[in-house]
Amino acid sequence: MRRKKLNTIIRGFVLATYFLCGVPAWAQTPSQPTTSTQAGPAPAMNAPLAVKEANPPSAEEMAKGDASGSLTGTVNDVTVSNPKVGLTLADTLNQVGQNKVAINFVWTLITGFLVMFMQAGFAAVETGLCRAKNANHTIMMNFMVYGIGLFAYWVCGFALQMGGAAGASSLGGAAPLSGEFALHIAGKTWGLWGTHGFFLTQGGTYDVAVMVLFLFEMVFMDTAATIVTGGCAERWKFAAFAVSSVFLAAITYPLFANWAWGGGWLSQLGANYGLGAGYADFAGSGVVHAVGGLSALAVALIVGPRIGKYNRDGSSNAIPGHDITMVLIGCFILAFGWFGFNPGSTLGASGSLRIATIAVDTMLAGATGSFGAVFYMWIRYGKPDASMGGNGLLAGLVAITAPSGYVNTIGAAIIGLIAGVLVCLSVEFIDRIAHIDDPVGAISVHGACGLWGVLSVGLFADGTGVGAVKGLFYGDAGQLVAQMIGVVTLLGVVFTLSFVFNLFVDYFIGQRVSPQSELEGLDIPEMGALGYPEFVLKIQGAGAA
Amino acid sequence: MKFVGLLLAVCGWLLPVAGLTWTSSLAARFILALIGIALCLTGILGFLNRAYVKEAIWKK
User: Fold this and answer.
1) In which band, very low, low, confident or very high, does the pLDDT at A11 lie, cut at 50, 70 and 90?
2) pTM of the entire structure?
3) Mutate which of B11, B22, B24, B29 to test chain A, going by most A C-beta atoms within 10 A?
């Protein structure tokens, strides 16, 4: 009763705001599928089928070539298990099942390849936003985080994350991923980490479905790891970066990802405590982006601001990047890769036709995010700032990552627009009030907008998408509470874990380069070679070119 | 100050999570989650960050 009352009060308040802003609520009504049933005797599974009735092309016809494409891919191509019997119904059904899983394998792998290519986008954005004297160092961090993260994730990260996540039915089940370490508290099961899949062999995980899942999940983890390099660029010691990235890939990221995606306690908040469908993060605004953004915040606090970023009175100096064209090209690469990130998170195309909505939601939120940021900057500073335009696009994409599987296009457009404005406000807050130096805006784009994306699921999910997740505007306040618990977990656990580990790194290795190296530029002291050896770099005081 | 900041962040998380077992009221859980988020942000930005800003390189 109380719950209903609270639902009504919160819904009334937020819906009033929603309508006052002139935005009509719109919910898609799912069409009722038509089904037909035919009674009759079940056909014998192993009796030979009358293949000739399917009119398969003859060998002579095939020998002439198939210019129209109508002869290729017929009953002749169905695998026959027993040539003596010929094609049976059992063969046909097995082929149908394998085709379904094969389509999903190919879909998941290709979208995973797209996500992998996002590393190039991150490299371009971060390097372009840094000064030329640090170009080699910045791009090498982006380059090496791929291999470092992959290795750590293969050793133990994947097992901790997905070791107990069996149930990827679209990929054939991934049955070996069946070990989850869990606590039993007050009669409820709290899954904490997976126990199968170390080195992709332990626990029977030498399995094709597990390999597909590994590739897809690994590139997501690497996205989180590469976010940190941007927030701490231009003063982070390369050795410290390497050790810090191992920890993120092996422990911090997998732990939270298990709780959200691997069958852990956050995903069970619905079943255990009646909070909507449990914490819902479709493609990772929280799991990937907020984890990366909050880890960037933790390291940025420890390494401190760059020399010349702040004056003695606390006012900040803008330190522009060296190549805005590279930044915006990088943003486009990222936007392209996001079509792997979000639609790919269905882990299949066969039976998951929601991919169309997810792709459109992704496009829309990215576009409205860049509108929001550009118009905000234009109104506030008189010019449409290019780098914030790029960050606005990324902010919209980050924010729609969690809700993309659950919201309609109007919801997506609003989420992106809010993210576009939020990223500008957050950059100003981080830079001028908190005095945290974030050269590329990673904390704002991925941290702040990642958290907004998580919350937006609890507001805008319309109940028609994956898992029928329904937010506050569509009648379920419990979902919003589940999302808030996800946010508080990111802030309280992920940030703290990341901060404490990086304190150890600081103690044993040292996180920050020497002031001399920083002023000279990190390319020679840290990497041994300049990013642009044939350019003469102009020295402009502390903020050298 | 740094330790207090971290402690607040962890307490901010523990509060709504423990609240899941204390109460089944959605209103109470909503409020606990709000307080938890506020505590975490206060710990991170109010205490931890302030401690680092105090000894920042640009103040020397």
Assistant:
1) low
2) 0.90
3) B29
